[in-house]
Amino acid sequence: MTDSSTTLRAEPTIYELSSPGRTGVTFPDPDVPRVKLPKNLLRKDLPLPELAEVDVVRHYVNLSKYNYSVDGGFYPLGSCTMKYNPKINEDTARLPGFAFTHPLQPIETVQGNLALMYTLQEWLKEISGFTALTLQPAAGAHGELTGVLIMCAYHKDRGDTKRVKMLIPDSAHGTNPASSAMGSLEVVQVPSDARGNVDLAALKAACDDTTVGLMLTNPNTLGLFDEHLEQVIKIVHDCGGLVYGDGANLNALLGILRPGDVGIDLMHYNLHKTFSTPHGGGGPGSGPVGVTERLADFLPGPLVGIVEESADDEPPLFGFVTPKKTIGRVKAFHGHFGTLPCTGRTACVRSPSTPC
Ligand SMILES: Cc1ncc(COP(=O)(O)O)c(C=O)c1O
To answer: Is 206's C-beta closer than 6 angstroms to any atom of ligand 1?
Structure first.
């Protein structure tokens, strides 16, 4: 998106500013013998501009000004907005121990990061009443796809191979049918009644032994809490389906209702909405998925776990564990790590009883 308050000027490009031999850095004389770089690393056809440091800085600062952000103005999208992200959370994400670690480092060298991830897994499970949780999914929609794959794996594991339909209320966010279709499911739309609730008669009629489950956002995208939540869940369970909670609007429930306690089988969280993310503009997101006991074995792996208990008051050794019937990885490494310290900070501030 382009910031309308920014005047697009016809500035010279970095290629026009380039001048042969100009450079932004001057290296000291080497104290080791010079060697020739391998020929195939030097591409003559790659016209890299040659610029002074100040030109490079100006180039990137100018580019950043073309990007619309909450720092520059009101962010007009609805529920998908990154909302308010306190700057102090960005400081948290930028702490060198968080920002400068590499996901392939030996676990002994990143125990702090793993402890943070483990603790956050525990907190997210606790606030929503789930047994197990993955931090891997990159955002809400990715959490939905992960959930669809888990639901399908669960039915398949029980030899229940007829189930191909996902029921989706007509008030759902667009990502719900999209992620179900991406998981190769047939999408069946369930109408709302006159008060904006899921129409119970229509749900009953749609629910049968080919139903994988229902994807339900609560409060829904109309901003309404479904008045028959327990009946909705019962109808789906009675036909052998699972209830997926789209937790994008979890903000409204935090501290009031735990979805796992009322029969929701699995749910994604939009950490970048309910909690916080380091970037004020459009990302990154994070869409952890929490599940109840019967789905725990199907979570993507690896999860962060305790791999060795310690004696006395010493912290345990954190590492990675893989659920028995895992659907496999859904994301490189361990998700969008930068969002996790921000979320941890916000979750901590929001629940004063939690030691943090
Ligand atoms: C109800 C609902 N579900 C799912 C999503 C998708 O989440 P994400 O944008 O993180 O993929 C959103 C986005 O805001 C949403 O509002």
So the answer is: no
